Amino acid sequence: FSPSGPDYLEGLNTEQRLAVETTQGPLLILAGAGTGKTRVLTTRFAHILLQQLAWPEQILAVTFTNKAAREMRERISAILDRPVENLWLGTFHSLCVRMLRQHAALIGLERNFTILDTDDQIRLLKQVMEPWRLDPKRYPPARIMHQIQLWKDRALLPDAITPAQDTELANGQVRAIYAAYQARLKELNACDFGDLMLHMVTIFRQHPEVLERYQSRFRYILVDEYQDTNAIQYLWLRLLARRKDGQPANIACVGDDDQSIYSWRGADIANILRFEKDFPGATIIRLEKNYRSTPRILSAASQIIAHNEDRLGKTLQPGRTDVDGDPIEVISTPDSDDEARIVGARIQTLHEQGHAYGSMAILMRAGFQTRSFEDSLMRMGIPYQVIGGLRFYERAEIRDAIAYMRAVLYPLDDLAFERIVNLPKRGFGNVALSRLRLAAQEAGLSLQQTLQKQLDQGLVKGKNAATLGEFMAALSHAREITSKDGHVIATETILEESGYLTMWRDDPKTVEAAGRLDNIRELLRAIGEFPTMDAFLEHIALVMDGDMAQDEQDRVSLMTLHAAKGLEFPTVFLPGWEEGIFPSQRSLDEGGNQALEEERRLAYVGLTRARERAFILHAASRRIYANWQDSLPSRFIDELPEDQIVRHTVSQQAQRSGSFFNRSPRPSMNRPSSSRYGTKKAAPRPAIPLGATIRHKRYGEGTVVALDGEQLSVNFEDVGLKRIMAGFVEIVP
Ligand code: ATP
Ligand code: MG
């Protein structure tokens, strides 16, 4: 290739350029974090189009998250300088949904099948399991579901499972439960997440003509985050990449074995090692310069991952030589509440120094850690978003509202109907529901249809009859409105007329209930962004799996380390580096090195998300429900190179005197005196009287209406009631 060339190739280094321009035949790019793998893949996509090697619809590109797909689409259209539509670019799942809608009939589904979320999956499985009469304590449905998913991830249909593969749980009955569950899904015209891939692979296997159509359509296949493909994804790729003429397919995969973090979902590093065998004659390119992080961050990350034994081994050099960068700050706090507060304070300081909120991220080991940061950021008035469906779409009120809309649109959707028929309470408890289920089975109708019939025939007696009648009337009224006034107004109507919103308005826990009503308002906004309810429902089914819709506004991002893969932020906070949290308790309990090495890969992923600065935090004591528990700093902290870090201890003393940080050269075991373990310190009383007028940076002026330790409830003139921390307001004289 020539050193000069089209604009879009400028700025790539030699190896990157080679990876873009080697378009024919199989290609594996194996390289560490931040070496430009994704950038190469994106440029390659554009290159194929600009060189007119293929039409847009002849390229299949697989990303790991919807967010990554969106970013890739944007980058491609920037390179091409025009909007691009209708690309086969997305996650494995979103690509499979698109295919499956076309071929649903081949698998016994209708084109408009619904995709169940985790909640509904379990609910359905519980019903299916009833005849087996298994003790739910010994055989929790969630574990049975996990087993079924593992089978699905290996492309195993119920018939293909041998008795020997079904010995771990429930005396070899899981196979049969799996078969019953699949049958029930089909009756409901639904599939779960794992089915999206399973059905497509099944169709490819049973209908070669369908597979052939795709094989000849996709002239180029591009796969990002290849190290995390599981067996069925790999199979799907291999089927699509097979060529009739015996020529090697033009498949390009990029990956990093050090970032393989999904083995618990069946991902298999071995897929990387197998690449050369499965695609003979493959070109292998290594990229060695990291362009993302400062040399110091890179050095720290490299040292941590060097503790793993199970590695392919790669060279990783700093590509950024302009700066050395700041040392990584390792911050010890007395307890987990302080941790959240200090992260908030740091974010605020950085923001005051001119760093956008959107340039900062808090990356957690486990979803449950999010809550304390949400609280702390909310109280300080720092805008944030939770990426990864941990928050919004998983909240009960959101699921309820969606179930209401599903019941409106799909009178056959029994799961949705069950969720809401007694919400708010309509005197229709479990007994009534079981009876209705039985009647529905006998009549061969859905629950909703059956109840309607019973009401029409006057079979429902007592005062519940009127309540249920109103409920059913509300459903059909909303159905009418959908076609007349659209899905947004219909949603609002059903939530109002069913009494659902009133239920929250009358809720005694007003602050929480207000939050729920806010969420529902937000939901209506989200629904409004889609042309139809169907489009919206499909969208959530997809985002629920991994990542949430991106918001253009300036917000701090909160997410798990798993969800952060492939992303980058100038500033990264890594809290909870404690034994039992990170590495997780489960990985420690398993005892083996494998689980621990996967945790270490997660630490590597976390640190390598940072471009300019990274903060690692650990607390000496952590709240677990109502109790406080001691914790030890993570072993990964000890694995950091001392010359790339600086340690801070936040002492209570320092907090009282108002200065957050108390520098100490190496307080390796800086734990507070044991007397305070198990007890919560008294919060410093703010000298803010009830009824005082205060000013908050973000919310403006308001009146203090309640006090609880250092938490204030303030009625703000502009934004209404908020709970905030006393430390972040000033009294207006
Ligand atoms: P990860 O392993 O985390 O997914 P990656 O290998 O996919 O990382 P990219 O996200 O593609 O890396 O690139 C990391 C950063 O480096 C991006 O900001 C990208 O724009 C930048 N970058 C990549 N290549 C170059 C280059 N040749 N010159 C300057 N910057 C580059
Ligand atoms: Mg990448």
Automatic annotation (TrEMBL):
- What are the UvrD-like helicase C-terminal domain coordinates in residue numbering? 295-566
Residue ranges of region Disordered?
A: 654-685
Residue sites binding ATP per the record: A31, G32, A33, G34, T35, G36, K37, T38
Give start and end of each UvrD-like helicase ATP-binding domain: 10-294
- Low complexity: bias regions: 662-676
Q: Does the keyword Hydrolase apply?
A: yes
User: Domain of life here?
Assistant: Bacteria
Pfam families hit by this protein:
PcrA_UvrD_tudor, UvrD-helicase, UvrD_C
EC number, UniProt record:
5.6.2.4
Q: Does the keyword Hydrolase apply?
A: yes
- Keyword set for this entry? ATP-binding, DNA-binding, Helicase, Hydrolase, Isomerase, Nucleotide-binding
Q: What class of enzyme is it?
A: isomerase
| Entries under InterPro entries matching the protein | DExx_box_DNA_helicase_dom_sf, DNA_helicase_UvrD-like_C, DNA_helicase_UvrD/REP, P-loop_NTPase, UvrD-like_ATP-bd
- What chemistry does it catalyse, as a reaction equation? Couples ATP hydrolysis with the unwinding of duplex DNA by translocating in the 3'-5' direction; ATP + H2O = ADP + phosphate + H(+)
Q: Which PANTHER family match?
A: ATP-DEPENDENT DNA HELICASE SRS2, UVRD / RECB / PCRA DNA HELICASE FAMILY MEMBER
Q: Which family does it belong to?
A: Belongs to the helicase family. UvrD subfamily.
Q: What is this protein called?
A: DNA 3'-5' helicase
Give the source lineage, highest ranks first. Bacteria, Pseudomonadati, Pseudomonadota, Alphaproteobacteria, Acetobacterales
